[in-house]
C-alpha cells in the first residue's frame, strides 16, 4: 500500500509570509493528491487537490505542486493570515483500487499577527 | 462542496456499553463511505470501508466484531462501537465520495467518543 511522509510537523510564520508544506509518497501509480485543513475539534476540510496529469494547481492564495518523478507534492500558502492557523494534512490513495485515502502525519501551522 | 453529517458530535458512555455513530451524505448518494479514527494530535487512520448493501472491509488490526459497520442505504452508514473501553475513546470521522469515483473525499464533522 501507499506510504505518505509529511514535513515539517510544525510551522510558525508571521502574517503575510508564505508557508510551504511538503509530502512524499511511495506508490508511483498514485494519481490523486489532496490537501486538507483541520481546525480543532472539527473534521478535515478539502482545500485543494491535484491529479497526476498536471504539475501545478492554484486557487487564490493556495497552490499545490506535484513532481511525479521525485514522488513529492507541496502545499504553498501565500500572504498567510491568522485564520490560516490549523493542522494541514496531505493525502494519497491508500490502494491502487478504490478511493480510500492515507494521510500524512499533519503539519500544525501557526500564523502570528 | 458536498455535505457529510455525523451524529452525535459528542458522546460519553460507560465502559462495557455500545455506542452508535451515524454518518449521512446530505446532498448526494454515497455507495462508499470510509470510517477514520483520530487520536489526539495524531493523523487520521483508516478503519474500514463501508459499502452500501454489502459487508464492510476492515483495515488490518481493526476488530470487525468490535466496530460494527452498517451501510443500509445510499445516504447512511453507521458505526457501532461495541463493549466500549476507555482505550476506544477517540475522534471518529466518516467520509464519503461525491460525484462518482473522482477521488474527492468529503468528511463529516467527527464524533468525539469518551468512554469512562
Write out key terms for the chains shown:
heterodimer, A: 113 residues, mainly beta, 6-stranded mixed beta sheet, 5-stranded antiparallel beta sheet, 11 strands, 0% helix, globular, B: 116 residues, 7-stranded mixed beta sheet, 4-stranded antiparallel beta sheet, 52% strand
Protein architecture, described:
- Chain A is mainly beta and 113 residues long.
- In chain A, 0% of the residues lie in helices and 56% in strands.
- Chain A has strands at 4-7, 10-14, 19-25, 32-38, 45-51, 56-59, 62-67, 72-77, 86-93, 101-103, 107-112.
- In chain A, the strands form 2 sheets. In chain A, strands 2, 4, 5, 9, 10 and 11 form a 6-stranded mixed β-sheet that branches. Chain A has a 5-stranded antiparallel β-sheet with strand order 1-3-8-7-6, with no helix packed on it.
- In chain A, strand 9 and strand 10 (101-103) form a beta hairpin.
- Chain A is globular.
- The N and C termini of chain A lie far apart (41 Å).
- In chain B, strands 2, 4, 5, 6, 9, 10 and 11 form a 7-stranded mixed β-sheet that branches. In chain B, strands 1-3-8-7 form a 4-stranded antiparallel β-sheet, with no helix packed on it.
- The radius of gyration of chain B is 13 Å and the shape is globular.
- Chain B starts with a strand and ends with a strand.
- The A-B interface holds A 32, 34, 36, 41-46, 49, 51, 89, 93-94, 98-106 and B 1, 4, 6, 32, 34, 42-44, 46, 49, 93, 95, 97, 101, 103-110, 112.
Amino acid at each position: 500500500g501507499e506510504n505518505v511522509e509529511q514535513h515539517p510537523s510544525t510551522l510558525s510564520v508571521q502574517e503575510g509570509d508564505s508557508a510551504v508544506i511538503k509530502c512524499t509518497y511511495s506508490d508511483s501509480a498514485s494519481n490523486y493528491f489532496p490537501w486538507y485543513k483541520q481546525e480543532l475539534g472539527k473534521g478535515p476540510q478539502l482545500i485543494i487537490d491535484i491529479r497526476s496529469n498536471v504539475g501545478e494547481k492554484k486557487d487564490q492564495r493556495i497552490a499545490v505542486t506535484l513532481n511525479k518523478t521525485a514522488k513529492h507534492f507541496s502545499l504553498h500558502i501565500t500572504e498567510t493570515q491568522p485564520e490560516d492557523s490549523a493542522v494541514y494534512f496531505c493525502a494519497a490513495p491508500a490502494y491502487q483500487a478504490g478511493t480510500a485515502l492515507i494521510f500524512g502525519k499533519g503539519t500544525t501551522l501557526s500564523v502570528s499577527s | 462542496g458536498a455535505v457529510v453529517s455525523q451524529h452525535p458530535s459528542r458522546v460519553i458512555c460507560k465502559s462495557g456499553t455500545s455506542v452508535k455513530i451515524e454518518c449521512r451524505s446530505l446532498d448526494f448518494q454515497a455507495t462508499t463511505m470510509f470510517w477514520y479514527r483520530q487520536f489526539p494530535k495524531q493523523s487520521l487512520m483508516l478503519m474500514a470501508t463501508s459499502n452500501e448493501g454489502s459487508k464492510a472491509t476492515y483495515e488490518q488490526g481493526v476488530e470487525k466484531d468490535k466496530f460494527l459497520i452498517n451501510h443500509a442505504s445510499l445516504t447512511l452508514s453507521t458505526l457501532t462501537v461495541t463493549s466500549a473501553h476507555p482505550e476506544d475513546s477517540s475522534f471518529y470521522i466518516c467520509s464519503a465520495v461525491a460525484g462518482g469515483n473522482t477521488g474527492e473525499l468529503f468528511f463529516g464533522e467527527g464524533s468525539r467518543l469518551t468512554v469512562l
